[in-house]
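The methods section describes the discrete structure representation at length, but only in general terms. An entry of this sort, consisting of the sequence and the corresponding backbone structure tokens, reads as follows:
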Amino acid sequence: MRLSLPLLATLLFAAPPVFAQEKAEDPVIAEVNGVAIRESDLDAAYAELPEQYRQLPKEALLVPLRERLIDDELLRAEAERRKLDQDERVAREIARARARVMRAALLEQVIEEASTDERLRAVYEEMKAQPDFAVEEARISHILLDSEADARAVIEELDAGADFAALAKERSTGPSGPQGGDLGYLRKEALVPEFAEVAFALEPGTYTKDPVQTRFGWHVIRLEDKRRTVPSFEEVENRIREQVAREAITAYLDEARAKAEIVRDESFAPAPPASEPGGN
């Protein structure tokens, strides 16, 4: 059995519970009727915030988060006093929450056990053996100008034999002008699309015969060189870890399903009706 990527993504990344990291020192930041609220509790609450809140400086959220944790403890204690955990509906939700935490803890352990340095490096070597793993880089120079007319005037000077680097130093309004317009080696994805498409289509040693417009202005582009480079382990480590995690979870569930006795009610989700001949 192979899990689909969307399902694996759900298992791995869909709002798993946040486990508080163990700390050598975990100071108490508040007490509510003798119950300690620790810094690790605050860290976990911060990690659970929506992304837009986590864009704010963490220091700006410390006090509001601490007060929220105090409120949470007051509510929890009152729910316990009222024995709400004995309510059938609440008990089911508690069981679901416990199951979710246990699943996440198991997946975390399965992934950690699989993600040995030896395995990660082996996957990297496998990637390096693929013909499409190396990426194309281009060393590009450009002259940035304020208008199309200025750019065409520069192209006319280049056609007449002017030196590209000298013109860049004299005319370019971009920050690379003092370096003769040299941007160094870049990958296509590092550039705005309209610039990248033209630059990577040039032959080394040639320049654009028509100006290229981007949101930055008008460019005259020269391609100095092209090369293919192999990304370092560090550059692709996240991709490798995700691949190893997917493989580890798939293998674990394949084995677990093989050992389990699973009975399905086939009437639960009947197959969709077959399309009529010639139908869409």
